[in-house]
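Supplementary Methods S3. Input chains for the assembly prediction are listed below.
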Amino acid sequence: MVEPTSAGVRLTTLPLVSDQVRGETTIISVHKKSKDVKVGLEMGYSKDGRWLVISEIHPNTLCSTFSELKKGAKLLDVEADGVLHRHPSLQQAVVLIAGAVGDLRLTIMPLLDRYGFIVSMEEFLAHSVTRDMVREENIQLKKWQKRAATPKAWQEYASRKPDKLRKRIREGVPDAVRGFVWKLLAAARSSPEFRQATTWHELVAKAADIAEDHAVQIDKDVPRTMTEHIYFRSAGKTGQEALARLLKCYAAYHPELGYTQGMSSYAAVLLLYMTEEDAFWTFATLMKSCGLVGLFVDGFPLLFHHYDVWQQLIQKHLPKVDKHIKQELLQFLGMDMKEYNQIVKEQSPMRSMLPSMYTTYWFQSMVVGGDNPAPSAVAPRLMDCILLDGHLGVIFQFGLALLKSHEKELLKLRGDSLANALRTLPTRCGDFEALLEKAHEYKIADKTLQGPME
Amino acid sequence: MAAALSRAPSGTAPRPDDDYDYLFKVVIIGDSGVGKSNLLSRFTRNEFHLDSKSTIGVEFATRSISHDGKIIKAQIWDTGALPLLLPLPLVLPGQERYRAITSAYYRGAVGALLVYDISKRLTFENVERWLKELRTHADPSIVVMLVGNKCDLKHLQAVITDDAKSFAEQNNLAFIETSAMDSTNVDVAFETILIEIYRIVTRKTLDPTGDNKPGVPGGSRIVLEPAAGGKKKGGCC
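Predicted structure tokens for the full assembly:
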């Protein structure tokens, strides 16, 4: 058992000072009580010799809780005892960090993947892009640019080749046109009057007057939504501001709903590719026209419907796993099979206890929120399909593929270990490209996914 | 009392997962953002995440401790946003539609950690409402401990320790201040409540069905007496 971080040491992440460093950097502030306290960083130079990079972070040291601090992060500045040292040499940095007592600030540029998500070195290397891949992507991108050149061209393509469109979208919309395509997909799902009732600017003005409890909850959740993406990383910066504004505008737009935890994940994904205003209307389309409000309004009608759908799907497609999960988790919940069957037969709300243990955040936060999220990089891919389908079918497919890929392991686990594995499964989804491909093999009828409301 | 405890057999010869003498279900409740998930992860996995996510749905984990020669296994449930299975009247503020926890969630729970953030006054003011909810939905004999978390933020303290302590005494709750971040009192908090439950369980005659694993949630419910007197645990800092 390794000793936890010693008592009395405080770690804080500070907001960036914008004129001092670029938006892609993060300041990490470590409070060192004495020279004996270890910071736990090892550094070296990048291959080209230009950058001082972090080569190792030791667990359970002062630095191990900062998720930006991953191998490969570039160390830009060190501020020790109030004195700032720009781009120190390796030797200098070591002396400064080891000798500091009190506040030690490290300015780093985290290691990012091509989409802007903070990644580990392993992930970075696993998804590095070759020239051939870029060439192929550019060919695809040209085709997409043609398809989505104008709304009219898009409509023609969509009505002439709906199956092909579906296939292409499932393969992933290229980043360069993603925001535009999302806008077109959302427009196809909402009536023209949809945007006429009010304007974005009116809503921005109204956002200041939303119910206080919703505003407070939004302000609590925004700093903990999709923070693996550099855009949402730093407090008070553009990404977080935009997300808070969007959610508050939505609360003003739909005051009966206001804000419910989980909504921020959906909104965050949209903001990565769209302007605030477009992201807002796309979000509103998802909520109202696609009925996702049912996941968030009091009583959660669509969520409960999704629990039932999930139970049917897992029983149909993964009967062995389903049986095993029922057996083991019911015991974990202190319920016997007889009692459970009775509950299901009577359609008692208690029947949702089982799926609610591990699927709630799949639906309410697109699998990328909550305590055990799938890698955020999967979110845009899921959103491609959600906007195309107008429902969360892809989440069910993803869930089925995920359980299938871990079937052998799950069947061996019992009680708590199984409960724990199920709950954390999305964090171990591995190569999600391959998983998504498998996911689409599961066919789910559109009509089973329509909620009980609206 | 807690000093006499040793960590669950995690070393040389771990006992299998389901080898325990007592299984107690403990729920963690409190306002959004007070650090419930980090208390859970600190106790069960010795992990702390500065950039933790809001909990959507439920989190749960288990850890065993040994006490009095017995293995006590705690099944700890942390609610972030548990949807209503049985809707309650909407009387509470904040993330009310989520906070109103269900009877299902409380099912079989014999202990509750009611957490507030010592640097956020409002989270302490809401404690009373959480208590009311516990009284409505949980077993009346559930053992409750009031936990002032984030005591590492002493310089931002907005809830005076003595206020919380006297509130706890008035309401017959145990009380402690913790920091999931620097680990202060986290183990002590969980161990104290588990031992308190153990004390009550072993004193009472339980479970007429004769199940020899008392405290297993479900089927056989343990009848607990209300926790006798507020335990006096000092603040940590």
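Residues 186-203 of chain B form the longest helix (18 residues). Chain B touches chain A through 54 residues (CB under 8 Å).
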